[in-house]
Design brief:
The structure holds two protein chains of two kinds. By secondary structure, chain A is α/β, with parallel strands linked by helices. Chain A is built from five helices and eleven strands; from the N terminus they run E-H-E-E-H-E-H-E-E-E-E-H-E-E-E-H. Chain B is 35% helix and 23% strand. Classes of the chains: A alpha/beta, B alpha+beta.
């Protein structure tokens, strides 16, 4: 049986949404992990949720990355444990060096919250294992700094390694400049580490999982996780 | 007797400089039995300012209906109204203005408006779950207006997004009357379990008084007084009166405050908004009929050497005053330590009613709490009012004076691309509308925002509304329309209108013509609220929205309305669903274009009466819509409002890239039929197989209705003429505002 741990940093504000999606919708065992703690409470799947950790007055995620709990999260990842960061969680993972790249200000220099479409690059990672490859998933974004950047050499490397997980596309699944909401390099919306056990993405699958909200496209990510982790 | 060392006594000139009237200075001397010192005078000046005392409005506000079937806390009893939504849950909701600060410093002004209104909600123990805002700006061609809207929207976004509560609705309206005085009204709604609310009160001699949250700085000093005067060329000197917001602190304060309530150690709690420590200590003490000793030197400050009156008057944000049960201080300390927030005892509750403020053991002010507050000793004025000349003038307008345009295409184009009508996506895409995963309107657009109450069958519906052009044309009718339209939007979304919060934005109350607008608006609001059984639970009054050179803004009584959906499955959407569905309009077409966007900005006829409106007809239309939605025979419901029927149809069609074909009524002018803004009309679409059911239902309810036409593939067709393709209309509608802002 798998146990999920959602880390709460001061300023996290999507923590309860993630817990609701996992616990109330997916029926999973979830515990809250406090940023000052140094104990992962035997969780095997760690989630860093969205929000504005420490206010994000500095670079997003730059302070949260030094939280006491992050030492344990980094250890966990080094041992091959699963870690998943969404939005601010992705930014923290980048700052911590657990996934490659950085998240710059959106090209329009404005916060953007809206539904966008993404598609999975492959089924080779736990997070994308059950996603139909040609399906455009409608999943919302909500960020001011989601413009994915990486140097050219590293970009080639992560592409070759299959570390690009999601790219922004139109509703038909075409990856086009118009469907790129924030200026991300190569329309990249989500990546993983070399070991494919640490995942980061800007769009919020937990916001597209409750049938009451009329969009459950995000559920397939959680189902992918569960179908493998629970085995 | 006063034994303070702060012996320097004040004069009527000092009082005037602080914004008090000479007779108010005399009144203070009578209350105290002596001449106040500067600190005391400062206390009175903020507490008796318009902003805190409602001295020029309270007589009329008292005439508004306060009680309804669902009220848990009546108007003015707490920081916000509290409505029973069933299942042991209450909804606290309120709207508030931050106009004056936003006029000077749009980013911080708007941001702190968001912070303040949310604190009003969580100080009652309710967790905010949805925010809305209502914004008014001047002519978009002016660079200043662009600067203001960009700053205000970024301020609201940065604060609300980080705080982490979704912004689910709002309105943005442009008119040159707001060139100098933009209006920024922010609303928040929160949910609390019945019995877990906290009151803004203080009692029990010896109980400790704590200040928690941010340190106190010199920002916002005399902010309440600043908000109580006209804007002039000198207003830039008031910049220190604008506060600075920190949404991160607010988020921590939210979590810590709700956690501290659970300890059971709290007697009372109030946030610090206008007039800071002064206001919270005096209002809580007056309510609990006790006194307080406050040691100002214990207050954590940002700057050293702050004066006693600066600490008292500072409007630094993200602070709360908490009165705690004696001996339980450690319990609350522990919670605030966890969240890394200040939590310092600064005083204690005393018997009697004196507020005694000390600085380094010296008494610096000694005043009776009751004398400071609304409902206590604060002044109450009856103001003169006079009907302005423009009112009679407007009534002379007759539609026959205006020749009907031969070609309606340019009108349709003008309206769809007008910033008052076009999509506000440039604005709302900057707000996080989905955090909290409760916004049911994201993927299912509706006239009012529908917010899910997780773990229950219920949802709430929220709406802010005011067409200030109507209110200016006729305050009484215009304000009744504002209430009716808010209710109509909630009904069209499947909700039951429940209660109202208001934000009354007007010019200078000492101007009898402005006051006439105020009185008319209150009368209209009262009548409509009675009809819909939606009591007014609170809100705020913002006078002095006028400048020395441009006069008052349109009277803008923004209505924030809460509706309840006992069954969230009853939620209704505004978008056309299928080609071939039949379109009906419930209500009656009128030969009326008064106060429409069409007559005002296309023909530039600025002085016309309010649009056609009859409260009973409105009520009947709403009842019919409710029945139609409950019987599950309508596919979409969208009310006719700004821009008229054509805009309503376009908005319903654009969502799924559909078209429509309709036929006008030969007895009504075509421009009035399509672009008039006569009230009490709602467009519904039905499947062919439900058409006869709908007709039967509407006939039974004795409500007027007409068949308009049907939903089509891609063209907007009126009387066999194509006015637009949906692709063109959508492009125009979606991009108009962002193009104007470039």
């Amino acid at each position: 049986m798998s146990k999920f741990g959602v880390v709460i940093f001061p300023g996290s504000n999507c923590d309860q949404d993630m817990i609701y999606a996992l616990r109330n919708i997916m029926g999973q065992d979830v515990v809250e992990l406090w940023h000052k703690d140094k104990d992962l409470k035997n969780c095997d799947f760690i989630i860093l949720p969205g929000g504005f950790s420490h206010g994000d007055y500095l670079r997003s995620g730059a302070i949260a990355r030094f939280a006491p709990i992050m030492e344990k999260v980094i250890d966990h990842a080094a041992k091959g444990g699963y870690v998943f960061g969404v939005c601010n969680g992705f930014q923290i993972l980048c700052e911590a060096g657990l996934v490659p790249g950085a998240l710059l200000h959106n090209t329009e220099r404005r916060f953007i919250c809206k539904n966008v479409f993404i598609k999975a690059e492959h089924n080779e990672s736990l997070l994308t294992s059950g996603i139909p490859l040609n399906k455009a998933l409608k999943i919302p974004i909500a960020h001011g700094e989601g413009n994915y950047f990486i140097d050219a050499k590293s970009l080639e490397k992560i592409k070759k390694n299959g570390q690009v997980l999601f790219r922004y596309c139109d509703d038909k699944g075409n990856v086009t400049p118009e469907s790129n909401p924030n200026g991300s390099l190569d329309n990249i919306a989500g990546v993983c580490n070399v070991g494919k056990n640490v995942f980061g993405m800007m769009p919020h699958p937990e916001r597209a999982s409750d049938p009451v909200l009329g969009n459950t496209d995000g559920m397939v990510l959680f189902q992918s996780i569960l179908s493998t982790v629970l085995q | 007797m006063m034994t303070a060392t702060n012996e320097e006594l004040t004069t009527v000139d000092t009082a005037k400089k602080l914004g008090l009237l000479p007779e108010e200075f005399e009144k203070i001397k009578v209350v105290l039995g002596r001449t106040p010192n500067f600190t005391e005078l400062s206390i009175y000046s903020v507490m008796w300012s318009e902003h805190c005392s409602y001295k020029n409005s309270i007589l009329w506000l008292k005439t508004l209906p306060k009680d309804g079937p669902h009220m848990l806390a009546k108007a003015g009893e707490e920081n916000a109204g509290l409505v029973d939504i069933g299942g042991g849950l209450g909804c606290a909701f309120k709207i508030e203005s931050h106009n004056h600060p936003s006029a000077l410093e749009p980013y911080q002004g708007a941001a702190t408006g968001v912070g303040g209104i949310n604190r009003d909600i969580f100080t009652m123990g309710a967790r905010p779950i949805a925010q809305l805002n209502s914004l008014r700006f001047g002519d978009l061609k002016l660079e200043k207006t662009k600067w203001l809207i960009k700053g205000v929207v970024k301020g609201i976004g940065d604060y609300g997004n980080a705080f982490g509560i979704p912004t689910v609705g709002g309105e943005v309206f442009f008119d040159e009357c707001y060139n100098t005085n933009p209006l920024v009204n922010a609303m928040s709604a929160g949910i609390v379990k019945a019995g877990e609310t906290v009151s803004a009160t203080s009692y029990g001699a010896g109980n400790p008084v704590f200040i928690v949250g941010s340190a106190t700085g010199k920002d916002g000093i005399h902010g309440a007084a600043f908000a109580s005067k006209d804007i002039t060329e000198d207003s830039a000197k008031d910049l220190p009166a604008v506060q600075v917001g920190d949404p991160f602190q607010e988020k921590l304060l939210l979590e810590a405050s709700l956690e501290v309530i659970k300890t059971g150690a709290v007697i009372g709690m109030q946030d610090m908004g206008a007039a800071g420590i002064t206001c919270s200590t005096s209002e809580m003490s007056a309510k609990g009929k006790h006194g307080m000793k406050i040691w100002l030197d214990k207050v954590p400050t940002r700057q050293s050497n702050m004066k006693d009156w600066e600490i008292l008057l500072s409007e630094s944000q993200e602070r709360m005053l908490i009165v705690v049960k004696k001996g339980k201080g450690k319990d609350i300390q522990k919670v605030f330590d966890k969240w890394d927030l200040n939590c310092v005892q600064i005083g204690e509750v005393t018997k009697g009613d004196r507020l005694q403020y000390f600085m380094n053991n010296e008494l610096v002010a000694d005043v009776p709490a009751e004398s400071l507050v609304l409902g206590g000793g604060a002044p109450v004025y009856k103001r003169e009012f006079k009907e302005p000349a423009y009112f009679a003038e407007a009534k002379k307008f007759n539609i026959d004076q205006l020749e009907e345009p031969k070609d309606l295409k340019p009108v349709a184009k003008h309206l769809l691309s007008h910033p008052n009508i076009a999509s506000k996506r440039w604005v709302f895409n900057q707000y996080d509308s989905m955090v909290g995963t409760v916004n049911m309107s994201t993927n299912a657009p509706s006239d009012a925002a529908i917010v899910n109450i997780k773990g229950t069958n219920k949802a709430i519906a929220l709406k802010v509304d005011c067409n200030a052009r109507y209110v200016n044309a006729d305050p009484e009718t215009g304000c009744a329309i504002a209430v009716s339209e808010a209710a109509r939007n909630i009904v069209c979304s499947g909700g039951e209108p429940s209660a109202v919060t208001n934000c009354l934005n007007f010019g200078n109350p000492y101007n009898p013509e402005v006051y006439w607008q105020f009185v008319g608006a209150i009368k209209g609001m009262g009548a409509a609220c009675l009809k819909f059984q939606t009591p007014v639970t609170g809100g705020n009054v913002s006078f002095y929205n006028q400048s020395s050179y441009e006069g008052p803004v349109f009277p803008t009584p923004t209505i924030g309305m809460l509706g309840i959906l006992p069954d969230k499955a009853n939620a209704m959407t505004l978008d056309f669903k299928n080609e071939g569905d039949i379109i009906y309009m419930i209500g009656e077409a009128k030969n009326d274009i008064a106060s429409s966007e069409y007559v005002y900005s296309f023909h530039k006829i600025k002085n016309t009466p309010a649009p056609y409106f009859n409260l009973d007809e409105e009520y009947n239309v709403q009842q019919a819509v409710k029945v139609a939605i409950k019987s599950k025979i309508v596919q979409s419901v969208h009310d006719v409002s700004d821009g008229g029927l054509f805009v309503t149809l376009a908005e319903s069609a654009i969502v799924h890239n559909l078209g429509f074909e309709i036929f006008t009524d030969k007895n009504i002018r075509k421009d009035a039929f399509l672009f008039g803004e006569a009230q009490s009309r709602v467009v519904v679409s039905v499947k062919k197989e439900h058409e006869t059911d709908l007709i039967k239902l509407l006939k039974n309810l004795e409500v007027k209705f007409i068949k308009l036409g049907f939903v089509t593939g891609s063209e907007f067709k009126v009387d066999n003429e194509t006015l637009f393709t949906v692709a063109d209309a959508r492009d125009l509608y979606d991009t108009a505002l962002e193009n104007l802002l470039k």
